[in-house]
Amino acid sequence: MAWITPCETDMSHVLIVDDEPSICWGFRELLADEGYAVSVASSAEEALELTESAVPDAVVLDVRLPGRDGLSTIQDLRRRIGAAPIIVITAFGNLETAVRAMEEGAYDYLTKPFDLEQISEVLRRALKRSSTTVANMVDDRSVVPDTFIGTSPAMQSVFKQIALVAPSDVPVLITGESGTGKELVAQAIHRHSRRKDGPFLPTCLAALSPGLIESELFGHVKGAFTGADQARQGLLELADGGTVFLDEIGDVPLPVQVKLLRSIEQHEVTPVGDARARRTNFRVLAATNRPLDDLVARGEFREDLFYRLGVFHIHVPPLRERAEDIPLLARAFLRTAAAEGEAPSLSDNALRELASRRWPGNVRELRNAVERAALLARGGEIEIDHLATVMPISARVNRSVGEELQLATANWATESIATEPQRDANDPDNGDLLERFLRVVEPPLLKAALLHCGGNRAAAAKMLGIHRATLRQKLNDCGLNGD
Q1: Could you tell me the CA-to-CA distances from 133 to 48, 87, 334 in Å, in that order?
Q2: Domain 431-483: which topology?
Q3: Contact 149, 332 (CB under 8 A)
Q4: What is the CA angle 99-196-166, rounded to 5?
Q5: In the CATH scheme, what is the code of domain 325-418?
Q6: Contacts with 445 (C-beta within 8 Å, 6 or more apart), sequence order
Q7: What is the CATH number of domain 168-223+231-315?
């Protein structure tokens, strides 16, 4: 049964469709306080029934519902509510869901958990838009499974941005460190665009000499330069009707940047050695791991091209900023590597080790690590030892001693806290987590100070910033007085 707040003529009416009572209650309290009239439905069928008698001004729709799912309900809702914005929410977000939500005409897409103030702000923006504006509907609902995975807020944001920009033809600038998956973002944009049946042509400009970049992009006529024994079409012409992906765009020489900007704006190319321009209809996606704004400031990259390429910007986060995705990625890579066989499992210790590393090579480095570890494990469970032999240097090359200590402390605290509920209430050590931690870390610190001071306790106490009597007591407590 729906909970309904009576709708007054001067109040915007919001329909919440979610089968979780706590979510519905939170929405109802927040939105009612902000002056909205609120209706609640616990299923898609109930929501459709409610909209027959009262058309809401906006709908907040969960994806997973009992019976019919939320995404498959959007079109039926649209026929009943017209242009009213639909905001999709889900606790199980991925790129496919984000793309389909946008294709079906959702105004926005949010992943749980989210701040209720966030949904409130989205609603305010949605209700301000023109009542005649409806997101573009795409007839082809087929979605190719993506290689992108991740449940972290950072990756959910990337999925949402891909879904928003894919149906358009605007240039996209994709930034991020090496190994984060910038080309995968480009592939996903192309795959979910209206150009998906056209070619997707990637090129890494950093792999080309400056003299060859112009020919690679624009082509050349026979005899245009030494070695040009025959005419050749460039990528921008070959990408007609499709997408060209320019990786390491910062490596394009300044003279070629002028020509590239003109091609993007005029939809034409002029091959090297030719005076005639040729029409072509391509979409350009560019990527870089270098800060283009710095290159612009140094005069190494044209400002007008920078702004043209950056009409829409997607930043792919480094793996260290989405550590919660590491177990998911690692298991996926193991399944892929195992092909038809059974994928090896990762021990809890191995998973903690993977999560603790900084991964300067990002997702690419993680994939290499787990695939090699699987070979070393010979079909058994992957342990830390298998990972330690994979990359003992690169995994820790950028980590300071302080960071190592923080990670070790975090792991110790996590394991200790996890065991607290199982501890006997009569255990004398119960509830003394800090004391137990100090018993672990203080002895090596005291030993190091004494060693540095040649056993001089007064000097060691001064170094530690404590009174000599306090040092003597701590040494007694740690059993170090005889050392």
Answers
A1: 21, 14, 45
A2: Arc Repressor Mutant, subunit A (1.10.10)
A3: yes
A4: 35
A5: 1.10.8.60
A6: 464
A7: 3.40.50.300
Q: Where in the chain is the domain with CATH 1.10.10.60?
A: 431-483
- Enumerate the CATH 3.40.50.300 domain ranges in the chain, comma separated: 168-223+231-315
* CA dist., res. 468 & res. 470, Å (int): 5
CATH number for the domain formed by residue range(s) 13-128: 3.40.50.2300
- Beta strands (DSSP E) in 136-240 are 172-175, 200-204, 219-220, 232-233
Burial (0-12, 13-18, 19+ Cβ within 10 Å), 64? middle
Rounded to 10°, the helix 326-338/348-356 angle is: 120
Query: What whole-number distance in Å separates Cα of residue 455 and Cα of residue 447?
Result: 9
Show the tokens assigned to 290. Answer: 């270098």
Read off the pTM: 0.58
Burial class, 421, CB count within 10 angstroms (exposed 0-12 / middle 13-18 / buried 19+): exposed
Q: CA 447, 453, 454: angle at the middle one, nearest 5?
A: 90
| 362 CB neighbour count, 10 Å cutoff | 21
The DSSP 8-state label assigned to residue 110 in this structure reads E
- Parts of the chain belonging to CATH 1.10.8.60: 325-418
pLDDT truncated to tens, each residue of the chain (483 aa)? 344 443 333 568 888 898 888 888 888 888 888 888 888 888 888 888 888 777 888 888 888 888 888 888 888 888 777 778 888 888 777 777 777 777 777 888 888 777 777 777 888 877 765 333 333 322 332 233 344 788 888 888 898 899 889 999 999 999 999 889 999 999 999 988 999 889 999 988 887 777 788 888 988 888 777 666 788 888 899 999 999 999 999 999 999 999 999 999 999 998 888 878 889 999 999 999 988 989 999 999 999 999 999 999 999 999 999 988 998 899 888 888 776 567 788 888 888 889 888 888 899 889 888 888 888 887 788 888 888 644 444 444 445 556 567 667 766 676 666 555 555 555 555 567 788 888 888 888 888 888 777 778 888 888 888 888 888 888 888 777 654
Output the CA–CA distances (angstroms, integers) from residue 303 to 82, 88, 167, 175, 477, in the order listed. Answer: 42, 37, 26, 17, 66
Residues 219, 233 contacting (CB under 8 angstroms)? yes
Buried b (16+ CB within 10 A) or exposed e, 325-360: bbeebbbbbbeebeeeeebbebbeebbbbbbbbbbb
